[in-house]
Amino acid sequence: MPVETKTTCPYCGVGCGVVATVAEDGGVSVRGDPDHPSNYGRLCSKGSALAETIDLDGRILHPEIGGRQASWDEALDLVAGKFAAAIKEYGPDSVAFYVSGQLLTEDYYVANKLMKGFVGSANIDTNSRLCMSSSVAGHRRAFGADTVPGTYEDLELADLVVLAGSNLAWCHPVLYQRLAAAKAKRPGMKVVVIDPRRTMTADIADLHLAIRPDGDVALFAGLFSHLVAGDAVDQNYIAAHTSGFADAFLAAGRLSFAEVLERTGLPAMQLREFYRLFAETEKVVTCYSQGVNQSSSGTDKVNAILNCHLATGRIGRPGMGPFSLTGQPNAMGGREVGGLANMLAAHMALENADDRDRVQRFWRAPAVAQKPGLKAVDLFKAVGEGRIKALWIMATNPVVSMPDADAVAEALEACPFVAVSDVLGKTDTTRYAHVLLPSLGWGEKDGTVTNSERRISRQRAFLAAPGQARADWWQLAEVARRMGFADAFAYAAPADVFSEHAALSAFENDGRRDFDIGAHAGLARAAYEVLDPFQWPQPAGREPAESRFFGTGGFYHADGKARLVAVAPAETDRTDAAYPFTLNTGRIRDQWHTMTRTGKSARLSSHIAEPFAELHPRDAMEIGVGNAGLVEIESPQGRAVVRALITERQARGSIFAPMHWNDQFAARARIDAVVPAITDPFSGQPASKNVAVAARRF
Ligand code: SF4
């Protein structure tokens, strides 16, 4: 008899439910889970092709040390020994973990606990730093906690949906399908797309604002002024639930309408139309994604958006609110356990002594980290400078995905000890591993993930573990045991980890923190097996329910009020005579990250088969490159060679190139070798959307 298993898609932050069926002959097929409240049976092209990506080609099936097969005991002893020796000789901050939004929450929890509680350093950062850390910083500034106030349903209930820096059609396709279906049913609903490119998402837009790169702070500061001037703000909400209005208004007011036009590059008529729509529509949802986050002013952009929703009181009620769209399947779960170097655990703050004490007591930990650790860019710089003596990379491929990627490769080459846990034996990163640890892949591993609407869902195993591959949480717990912390890491199953994580979220919480899933503390393994998707918060004693935050205030700053943040646009035109183009990197519809899984599907690769750069026809003519000709893109950091795709969807003077391809595909295919390591001052998130480059025919 075929066996069906309910699980969750491992790709984007929509977090769709999947039903995987294993037939009697072992063949696997997938379909959308009709009962999952985030997708109601829908899947996009990537989710539908999951069964084509689970073969064992290229898998690493046993531990390796220096390229030779080793036993788990030998490999784990070596990792634990190298970390312990570095800590003993150079201190806890001489070691680091670089983890991933591809990890399940249980893996993430154990990694964070080991580094922050038992090693005593906060040097654990994640590729979520490249993805959502500006949203985290913006949420914490405004709300006092990293809270997404709304739900996916709000996009369907809104009368105006603003998509800022989001190619929803390609990057969150099922949510786009839900939005498009709602708009088709209610044609009066308006959609505004804010993006320098005319993407596929703009095809359903009533208004496409082809904004200058990084013009968003000016755009939303101008909107804030417009709302105040037109008396379109909610004075009652402002007075009862916010502070900082006067300063935020003063900062926004310094910008004249003419300056907003100049900084956004938008025609006055379009700008006025957007401001009018926003001011006159009560039910507004503003979704924002990487075009907002991946910027040297990403946190200010987030707060400029939040200011407009807080000042109008349009937050946390059906059909209204700001909405951060996470890029990865578990970017939220990682944040919940404190997977970022500047967070603690269960949305507690590393900078708060009471929180540190609370976590230390709960974990019975010897030495909780006292200060933030190194964020991703700084972490790899520290590796390159020899300050990190032992590094463990899990479920990510930084030699392709980090900015200044060639420098990351050089840093790894020079690092005294690098352990890599991955499913594949040969990636651009595994070649630098002294020890390679075989991990479980999708369909083999068990745990939970949290999607963009705070919904926690189970990923379930329906395939046997191949070879000697083991779960990441198990690898971490085994290393912890070898470092002398056996009692605190005596987990026998992911359910044990989840139960502890839920208990920590409720520990001395009493409503002071937003993240509370105490209802699941002490969850039995059998109950974990059948756990249905649920949205947090879920404190003990409350039935699972749809939830929104902040409709009637209740923010997490000490005074219970939100902060309106004074923001001012910074000059971000980085082009000059030598590097006259602005490069914007991003995703395409049918590939995921560095293609280690989606690259296996011929069907997915048939959408776009090769790395490319989109150029405006006149720019292409000026540099003398024809459609499908080779174009070399260069910055002071590095260069990449890709095919030209000539299209009027691209603005003049700008280039779009996808982030996916890697040197396993072709030499010089890694676009992140071109991207410099410029970061947002608050979040540390790299600015991947506004890179000055030269382009020439190759
Ligand atoms: Fe997977 Fe995202 Fe597609 Fe849903 S929308 S099937 S989560 S890639």
From TrEMBL:
<dbReference type="GO" id="GO:0045333">
    <property type="term" value="P:cellular respiration"/>
</dbReference>
<dbReference type="GO" id="GO:0016491">
    <property type="term" value="F:oxidoreductase activity"/>
</dbReference>
<keyword id="KW-0004">4Fe-4S</keyword>
<keyword id="KW-0411">Iron-sulfur</keyword>
<feature type="domain" description="4Fe-4S Mo/W bis-MGD-type">
    <location>
        <begin position="2"/>
        <end position="58"/>
    </location>
</feature>
<dbReference type="GO" id="GO:0051539">
    <property type="term" value="F:4 iron, 4 sulfur cluster binding"/>
</dbReference>
<keyword id="KW-0479">Metal-binding</keyword>
<dbReference type="GO" id="GO:0043546">
    <property type="term" value="F:molybdopterin cofactor binding"/>
</dbReference>
<protein>
    <submittedName>
        <fullName>Assimilatory nitrate reductase catalytic subunit</fullName>
        <ecNumber>1.7.99.4</ecNumber>
    </submittedName>
</protein>
<keyword id="KW-0408">Iron</keyword>
<comment type="similarity">
    <text>Belongs to the prokaryotic molybdopterin-containing oxidoreductase family. NasA/NapA/NarB subfamily.</text>
</comment>
<keyword id="KW-0534">Nitrate assimilation</keyword>
<dbReference type="GO" id="GO:0046872">
    <property type="term" value="F:metal ion binding"/>
</dbReference>
<keyword id="KW-0560">Oxidoreductase</keyword>
<dbReference type="GO" id="GO:0016020">
    <property type="term" value="C:membrane"/>
</dbReference>
<keyword id="KW-0500">Molybdenum</keyword>
<dbReference type="GO" id="GO:1990204">
    <property type="term" value="C:oxidoreductase complex"/>
</dbReference>
<dbReference type="GO" id="GO:0042128">
    <property type="term" value="P:nitrate assimilation"/>
</dbReference>
